[in-house]
Amino acid sequence: MKKIKDKPQESEDLLLEKDRLWQPRIVAFLCNWCSYAGADLAGTSRIKYNPQIRIIRVPCSGRVNPLFILRAFIDGADGVLVSGCHPGDCHYSTGNYFARRKFALLKRLIEFCGMDERRIHFSWVSAAEGSKWSQVVNDVVNAVYQAGPFTGFDLPVFSKETEIETPADLCKQGPERFAYSIDLMSRTGKK
User: Fold this and answer.
1) What is the pTM of this model?
2) Which of 13, 63, 83, 93 has CA atoms 20 to 30 A from the CA of 19?
3) CB atoms within 10 A of CB 188
4) Backbone torsions φ then ψ of 158, nearest 5 degrees
């Protein structure tokens, strides 16, 4: 005799199946000289890592504007990884120092605005660290998978003339103004 499942059980099974089918979309901004070469080394060495990552090669991690990161989320990414040369090894002398300062501000402000901190990751991977690249990618994919699908920003948009007094004021100005302010603060050293 066949056992018939209850209706509530069928809907729970369907939800679990949908959860298993969802795969995170992750955008990775990689420094041309180190991190991209590390990813290439992982590929040529046949080191396995999660394929949910989409790589964008940039000249230097210091050239990644915070607006690029916010734009990735607006365009449907569930997570973002920025990776560059180790501090002190930048091919452009100080690019990764600017990146480190810029992304520390970005991460703090995005967390303050209520976005899950597991969605944004920063790492330093050299050209000789293919296995480290694989580990970083797997960690990022797992963290974003735990965070779930990104549902979008829920921020009201104000005019560009609005005064910035607190981090909360930045959050209320919308993604473009938010990214511009972070870029400006990283250059001036304001916190």
Assistant:
1) 0.74
2) 83
3) 8
4) -110, 175
C-alpha distance from residue 24 to each of 21, 33, 106 (Å): 10, 27, 21
* CB 174 within 8 Å of CB 157: yes
User: Whole-angstrom Cα distance, residue 9 to residue 94?
Assistant: 57
**Structural domain boundaries in the chain:** 23-188
Residue in the structure block whose two tokens are 């992982």 = 42
Amino acid at 51: P
The CA distance from 102 to 88, in Å, is 16
pLDDT value of residue 17: 56
Q: What angle do CA 119, 122, 125 make, to 5 degrees?
A: 135
- Evaluate whether 172 touches 163 at the Cβ level (below 8 Å): no
Topology at the third CATH level for domain 23-188: Rossmann fold (3.40.50)
Q: How many Cβ atoms are within 10 Å of 96's Cβ, its own excluded?
A: 24
Residue 77 is predicted with a pLDDT of 95
Per-residue pLDDT of 116-162, as tens digits, reads 999 999 999 999 999 999 999 999 999 999 999 998 765 545 555 65
103 contacts 122 by C-beta, under 8 angstroms:
yes
Residue 23 CB neighbour total at 10 angstroms: 14
CA distance 48 to 134: 7
Cα–Cα distance for residue pair 9/5, rounded to 1 Å: 6
